[in-house]
Amino acid sequence: MKIGVQLKLDPWYPDFMSMSLDPLASATYVMKGPLTFATRNATGPSPGKAQISSDSVAAILNALMYTMTLILGALYAHSNS
């Protein structure tokens, strides 16, 4: 993935750019939890499910963005020296 993004190859680079625009991938994302309780009912109301889902996806996307920008920053810094 890092080489595909670095070389701006499809599908890695366009997907990375798309991910970078997602509010859940933002470093300023504000966690919805912690919650006192949550449920994952198959039917009916599921209190907390949406919040847990958002927080989980945000954690993964932020980890990817951090890793990729750290890698890309190092690659670009090295190529400019």
State the main characteristics.
81 residues; 3 helices; disordered C terminus
Q: Any overview of this molecule?
A:
The protein contains 3 helices and no strands. By secondary structure, the protein is mainly α. It is elongated, with a radius of gyration of 17 Å. The protein has one domain. The two termini are 24 Å apart. 57% of the residues lie in helices and 0% in strands.
Short description:
This protein has 81 residues and is mainly α. The chain has three helices and no strands.
Mean pLDDT equals 83
Inertia-based shape? elongated
Order of helices and strands: HHH
Whole-number total of structural domains = 1
The N- to C-terminal Cα distance equals: 24 Å
- Major sheet attributes: none
Radius of gyration: 17 Å
Helix content: 55-70%
In DSSP terms (H or I, runs of 4 or more residues), the helix count works out at: 3
Number of DSSP strand runs:
0
Q: Quote the beta fraction.
A: under 5%
How is this fold's topology laid out?
Layout: H1 2-6, H2 12-21, H3 49-79
